[in-house]
Amino acid sequence: MLKGLLFWQARSSMKIGRCAALILLSGAMVLAQTPPPASAKEPVTPRQEGSAAPQEPREPNLPQVEPRPVPPLPSLQRVGVQKDRTLSLSLNQAIRLALANNNEIEVARDDVRFAESVLRSLEGIYDPVISFTPQISSTIEPVSSVLAGSDQRGTVKTTDFNFGPAMSQQLRFGGGQYQIFFNNLRRSTTSTFSQLNPFYSSSLGVQFTQPLWRNRAIDQNRRQIRIQKKRLEQSDADFRRRVSEIIAQVEQAYWDLVFALKDQQNKLSNLELAREQFRQTEARVAAGAAAPIERAEVATELASRETDLLQSAQNVSIAENNLKQLILRDPLAPEWAAQITPTDEPNFDPTPIDLAALLTEARENRPELQRLRLEEDINRIDLEFYRNQTRPRIDLQATVATTGLAGTAVVPTGTLTGGLAGVSGSASGQVPLIFGDPNLNANAFLLAQINQLRAAQGLPPAEVPLITPQTQTVPTRLVGGYAQTLHNLFSFETRNVVVGVRIELPLRNRTAEANLAGALVQREQLAATRRSQEQQVAVEVRNAAQAVETARQRVLAAREARRNAELQLEGERRLYQVGRSTTFLLFQRENQLANARNAEIRAETDYNKAVAQLRRAVGTILRMNNITIQSPLTKR
C-alpha cells in the first residue's frame, strides 16, 4: 500500500509540474504580446505582419561528464561452501538420505531394537535349562545300632559320588513346568551289613506341575511377554511418528531451499535491471541529456538491491544448512562443502480437499492414536492378570520315575574281624554264630561272660556253633557294575509314581484386589486420554487442511498479481522510453514485479509445505512417499 501511495504521489507531482510549466509558458507569451503602458519612454511600434514569432524554450545546456563504470556484482560465495562442488538433489533423494543418515531416526530405530532385545530376554524364561551336579562326599559318622554294621570304633564310613544331569522348562501354554532328572550314585561303605559294596544307583523320571486355576490362563511371565509385545509395537509406532516428522521437516527444508534459491535468482535479475539502468543513466549524463543528480537516485536503488541480494544469499545458506542437517550423519561429511541444487519444482493441485475423508483416515493412521490403542490393550492384559490372581491356587503335581541298582556282592571272609580271641572261621567257609567285639556286640558280651564263669569253674570255653553264611542272598541281576545298573533302570521293573494336588487359599488377598482396582481406574483414564488425543488430531487435520486451502488460493492470487505486475512494468518502460515517466517510477514497477514473483514462489513452496504437513497430520506421509516400514513382530 505504501508503494502504491508513493507511486500515486509521484504521478501526481509529475502532472502538477507539467501543468505549472504550461502555465508559465503561456504567461510569458501573453506578456510578450501585451503593449507597454503609455507612460513608457520607448515609442510603441506597431507589430507588422510577417515579423518573427516568439522563440520556443530550449533544453538546458548541461555540461558533459565522463560516464562512471557499473559497479561489480557482489560476491555470493558462502562460507564453507565451494563453488565447484554441487550436489543435485531431488526431494525423493533427500528423503532417502534422511532415512539412512538422520541421527534422530537412528535414535528412534535403536529404541525399537532395544524393545526387541527386552522381549527376547523375557521369552528366555521358556528356554530349556540343562543342569549338572557332580558331587563327591565322604562321611564318617557314629552309629548307635548294631544293625548299622559299624567297625570296632562304632563308626561307619561312606564315600559317595553323585552325578545328576537334569533338564527343566516352563511351558508357554497352560503355565505348567516339567523337570526330567537322571540321578546317578556310586557308594562305598564300611558297614558290615551292606550286601553290595560298592554299589551304583540310578533313577530316571519326570516331575510335572500344572496350575488348574490361578496362573493357568495367564501368569506373571506370560503377562510380561504380552505387555512387552505391545511395548514393542508402541516403539514401532513412535518410530513411524518420528520418521513422519523427519520426512515433513525434510520436505519443508527442501522447499525452503527452493524458495531461497529462486528468491536469490529473482533478486539477481532485479539487480541486473538496476545495473542496466545505471549504464543508461551514465550515458545520458555523459551526453548532457540528463542532470548528474539522477546518478544519486540510480546509485541508491542499485545499493538497495545489492543489499537485498546479499540477504537472499544469507537465506540460501541458512536453508541449505537446515537441509544438510537432516540428511547428513557426520558433521564432518564432505557434502557440507557442496552446493545443493534442488531438481524438483513445486507441485500444485487446484483440486479442493475432502475434510471428512481426511479425518477418518487420520483416526486410522496416526501413530499417536495407535500408541494409545496399544496402551489400552496393555490395560486389558493387566485386568486379565489381576483378576486371575484373585482366585485360589490349585496345582496338579505328578512324578513318574524308574530306578536301577547294581554293585559288587560282599562275601564274608574266613577270619573274623572283630571276633573273639582265638575264634576263626573253618576252612570250609563256616563262621561262628556269635562273633564280634564284646564291648560292641551284646551277644559276644554274653558269650564272654559265660566263658569267664566256666573258666572260674575250671570248665573249657563254650563251643560256638559254626554256620555256613549264605553268600548268594543278593539277586544275580543286582550284581554288576554301572552298565548293569542302567540295564536294570531301563527294564522298568521298578517305578515310582506320585500324583497330588497343592491347594492354596488366600484369606484376603488384598494385594491382587488393589491391583485390579488400580487397573480399572487406569482404564477410565486411558479412555479420557484417547478422546483428548483424537480431538487434538482432528484439530491438527483441520488446521492443516485450512493451510492447504489458503495456500492454494494464495498461489492463484499470486500468479494473477505477477501477470499484472509484468504488464505494468512493460507499460512503464514504454512511458519511460518516450519521456513520460521517471526513473523512480520505473524502479518502483521493477520492485513491484520482483515482489510479485517472490510472492508467487513463496505461495507455491508454502503450498507444498502445507501439503506435507497435511499428510503428516493425516498419517499418510509414509505411503505418499512410497516408504514401507516392516513391523518388528512380522520379522519374528
From TrEMBL:
Residues 1-40 form the signal peptide. Pfam families: OEP. This is Outer membrane protein. One of its GO terms (molecular function) is efflux transmembrane transporter activity. Belongs to the outer membrane factor (OMF) (TC 1.B.17) family. It is found in: Cell outer membrane. InterPro entries: OMP_efflux, TolC-like. Residues 35-77 are annotated as: Disordered. Keywords: Cell outer membrane, Membrane, Signal, Transmembrane, Transmembrane beta strand, Transport. GO terms for cellular component: cell outer membrane; efflux pump complex. PANTHER family: OUTER MEMBRANE PROTEIN TOLC (PTHR30026), TO APRF-PUTATIVE OUTER MEMBRANE EFFLUX PROTEIN OR SECRETED ALKALINE PHOSPHATASE-RELATED (PTHR30026:SF23). It comes from the Bacteria.
